[in-house]
Amino acid sequence: MKPEYQLILLRHGESEWNRQNLFTGWRDVRLSELGEREASEAGRLMAEAGLNFDLAFTSLLSRAIKTLWLSLEAMDLMWIPVHKHWRLNERHYGALQGSDKAEAVQKFGEAQVKQWRRGYATPPPPVDVNSMDFPGNDPRYAGVAQSELPCGESLKDVLARVLPYWNDSVVPQLEKGKRVLIVAHGNSLRALMKHIENISDDRIVDFNLPTGVPRAYRLDTNLKAIEAGFLGNASEIQARIEAVQKQTQRT
Question: Per-residue pLDDT tens for 141-174?
Fold first, then answer.
């Protein structure tokens, strides 16, 4: 029988800026109280599904790290190895970081903002390298060449950033039979999903990933999805997806 591999992708719980409807990107924003509850509930869902993990991966942003902590605590798995890397960070939203999503629609138009938020190859306006939003000015990225750090990214750019880490660090663990949990962000995970599930450039535009809901995979020997689906109550998951869809609607 051919081997199958276990992978779970989990977007962090709601952050304070998700709640305020702001573009977050690489800004290091903490989880809201709801986000902490979502993270713990994700751990309980995974435990109830009989899942277990040998190691976990996350980004260098606290909302993903805290979600990982809380989900592992709920599973009594805080002892497993955890690997953190900047390549799993959220999409860098360039000059949009910190701005209100609905106000951005009023300023730039709904179609343009949708391309920046959910499109595949359209990056937002970039930040200058002297800006506080350029990662080269943040000490946590001091060991990364400035040429590798983004000033603003499309989803296509995020995929190009994430794939080397997937291939070099995650794939070898899966091929050893390790059970892997990745806790990251809406767009770094959408990029991985596009690769794993063979989602087209057009279809990925309308795919919204809810906060705090595990997406479970069985992978074939090519590490492509045999089976993929969210864990939890279907109506609650749909409500969270719709909440993501409505973030740019005018009020």
Answer: 999 999 999 999 999 999 999 999 999 999 999 9
- Three-state DSSP at 180 gives strand
Indicate if the pLDDT at residue 2 is higher than 90.
no
Task: Record the tokens describing residue 54, joined without a space.
Answer: 């040998």
Output the pLDDT for position 3: 63
Instruction: Please give the Cα distance from 192 to 40 (Å, whole number).
Output: 23
251 vs 248: CA distance, rounded Å: 9
Catalogue the active-site residues: 12, 90
Q: Is 179 exposed, middle or buried (0-12, 13-18, 19+ CB in 10 A)?
A: middle
Helices (DSSP H) in the chain: which residue ranges?
Answer: 16-20, 33-48, 62-75, 101-108, 110-118, 155-165, 171-175, 186-197, 201-204, 234-245
Residue linked to tokens 């919204």: 208
Ramachandran sector of residue 174 (left: φ over 0; alpha: ψ -120 to 50; beta: rest): alpha
Q: Per-residue pLDDT tens for 178-208?
A: 999 999 999 999 999 999 999 999 999 888 8
Would the pTM count as exceeding 0.90?
Answer: yes
Cα–Cα distance between 43 and 78 in angstroms, integer? 11
> What are the CA-CA distances from residue 188 to residues 4, 12, 84, 182, 213 (Å)?
24, 11, 14, 10, 15
Question: What is the Cα–Cα distance from 213 to 144, expressed in whole angstroms?
Answer: 31
CATH superfamily, region 5-246:
Phosphoglycerate mutase-like (3.40.50.1240)
Amino acid at 213: V
